Automatic annotation (TrEMBL):
Keyword Iron found: yes
Keyword Oxidoreductase: yes
Family: Belongs to the cytochrome P450 family.
Keywords from the named record: Heme, Iron, Membrane, Metal-binding, Monooxygenase, Oxidoreductase, Signal, Transmembrane, Transmembrane helix
Cofactor: heme
A Gene Ontology biological process term: lipid metabolic process
PROSITE patterns reported in the protein's UniProt record: CYTOCHROME_P450
Protein name: Cytochrome P450
Coiled-coil blocks: none
Pfam families according to UniProt: p450 (PF00067)
Organism: Lolium multiflorum (Italian ryegrass)
Origin: domain of life: Eukaryota
């Protein structure tokens, strides 16, 4: 056999028949930490494996390999049938879960909408509403009631869910509103999304990629919950689409244009079946909800450990407030947010260390060699690990594990972007994230408005919070914080 085709598993013991799979099983509760150690010890930051009867795979943390997979040889690394089939009952064939032509037309339509100023303005308004009407009052109440500990991760997740539902299809589930204000079906919809994501994660993490189908037939967990979650999600989305069709001013079949939301925008752009409109809803909710909340959860934790960084952010926010003058809005305008370079750097640096999408997997269409010589076989899964990349000295220098926003600033203090193959937090190449700018608007607005008025103290005890690798990187046990209003 060609020696190049031998799996490379530097530093890992390869057992007969099971190969390296026992390492995966043993480390399944701490995948990220384990991968990172393996990547740090591997001279080319790449690992490949093939176990009898199971799908082969490779994992890399090398920017040159990423460029090859995500751009240069893009056509050879689609999402692939295996992944698409595992997500199909949840996401249909929406933008996240399609390849080739089916993906391309959706990408073109979505890119066009994302480039419009009207969408940015709509997002700014939606964020302003949620910050002013929900988030700030909630923090005020937490302080006033002496409710000493707040799970900030939960607050951020509810914020993101309300926000993305409004942007995706013009509905306000009010999950962050005062207790009892949210309609029961909205809370159910959000809970169903959580159940579906957990089931999907279990499908992907299982070494036998067919096992979930057996569990589904037998009604075993987590597939049993998945079944009812899907009924709830699809029922909710279908109801919205039906109501919009019925209210369509231009006659039967047309959707009522409620607002500037995505559903209205897509529907206005051409004829779509109810099913493909439902895919728009589910795919955009998935894209926009837990990503920003994950990023901000880790950000608020990191900021609480670094008063020097927090002080610099506060200085920048107060300067923006001072130049806006009396009578300005409680939130910040797009232009004001754009000028906050230090805040931009601090959020970017936090996502470097804690990327919301910690790893991403594609499939290999035809036998290939990566630039570092690693062989990848037809049908193998090809993964890159953004979490491990942040911790490689070869990429970020000796202080790679340190939270240092300054690494993103030039001498004048202006934000300096990095090569996306070195920083694949928003993915890279033709499938790069479309919501990046929208995400920054949301994240910067929240941090600026909240830190301007409140300070937080982490009360989760000593040591590092637990990493939970769900579809996004979550914090085990939440983010318990004591909230205090700033005096001046
Ligand atoms: C901090 C926040 C965010 C991060 C870190 C992030 C990251 C990513 C990543 C890694 C991908 C590639 C996933 C894959 O293909 O498997 C992606 C794709 C995508 N993201 Fe984001 N995202 C964020 C927020 C958003 C928001 C708010 C939206 C807006 C709804 C959005 C819309 C999309 C879309 C539509 C795609 C699919 C692009 C395609 O396949 O062509 N993202 N994002």
């Amino acid at each position: 056999q060609d020696p190049k085709k031998q799996p490379r598993a530097h530093g890992l013991k390869v057992y007969p028949i099971v190969g390296t799979s026992s390492h995966f099983v043993k480390n399944q509760d701490r995948f990220l930490e384990w991968y990172t150690g393996v990547m740090q010890n591997s001279p080319n930051h790449t690992l490949s494996f093939k176990v009898l009867g199971l799908t082969g795979g490779a994992i890399t943390a090398d920017p040159a390999n990423l460029e090859h997979i995500l751009k240069t040889n893009f056509g050879n690394y689609p999402k692939g049938e295996l992944s698409v089939s595992m997500l199909e009952d949840f996401l249909g064939h929406g933008i996240f879960n399609s390849d080739g032509e089916q993906w391309l037309w959706q990408r073109k339509a979505a890119s066009y909408e994302f480039s419009k100023r009207s969408l940015r303005n709509f997002v700014v308004d939606a964020v302003r509403f949620e910050v002013v009407e929900r988030l700030l009052p909630l923090l005020e109440r937490a302080e006033r009631d002496g409710q000493t500990v707040l799970d900030v991760q939960d607050v951020l997740e509810r914020f993101a869910f309300d926000n993305i539902c409004r942007v995706a299809f013009g509905e306000d589930p009010a999950c962050l509103a005062e207790d009892g204000m949210a309609a029961p079906e909205s809370a159910e919809f959000m809970a169903a999304f959580n159940d579906a994501q957990n089931a999907i994660m279990a499908r992907f993490m299982s070494p036998a990629k067919w096992l979930w189908r057996v569990k589904r037939v037998l009604g075993m967990e987590p597939e049993r919950r998945m079944r009812s979650a899907l009924a709830t999600i699809h029922g909710y989305a279908d109801k919205i689409i039906r109501e919009r069709r019925e209210g369509g001013a231009e006659g039967a079949g047309q959707l009522a244009r409620r607002d500037d939301d995505f559903l209205s925008r897509f529907a206005a752009a051409g004829e779509h079946s109810d099913e493909s409109l439902r895919d728009v809803v589910t795919n955009f909710i998935l894209a926009g909800r837990d990503t920003t909340s994950s990023a901000l959860t880790w950000f608020f934790w990191l900021a609480s450990t670094r008063p020097d960084v927090e002080a610099k952010i506060l200085r920048e926010v107060r300067a923006a407030r001072a130049s806006a003058g009396e009578g300005a809005s409680a939130t910040f305008s797009l232009d004001e947010l754009r000028e906050m370079h230090y805040l931009h750097a601090a959020i970017t640096e936090s996502m470097r260390l804690y990327p919301p999408v910690a790893g991403d997997t594609h499939s290999c269409k035809a036998d290939d060699f990566l630039p570092d010589g690693t062989f990848v076989g037809k049908g193998w899964l090809m993964t890159y690990c953004a979490y491990a990349m942040a911790r490689l000295e070869g990429i970020w220098g000796e202080d790679c594990e340190e939270f240092r926003p300054e690494r993103w600033l030039d001498e004048e203090g202006a934000f300096r972007p990095e090569n996306p193959f070195k920083y694949p937090v928003f993915h890279a190449g033709p499938r790069m994230c479309l919501g990046k700018e929208m995400a920054y608007i949301q994240m910067k607005s929240i941090v600026a408005c909240v830190l301007e008025r409140f300070s937080f103290r982490y009360v989760g005890g000593e040591g590092h919070p637990k990493l939970i690798m769900s579809l996004t990187l979550r914090m085990g046990g939440g983010l318990p914080m004591q909230v205090k209003k700033r005096s001046g």
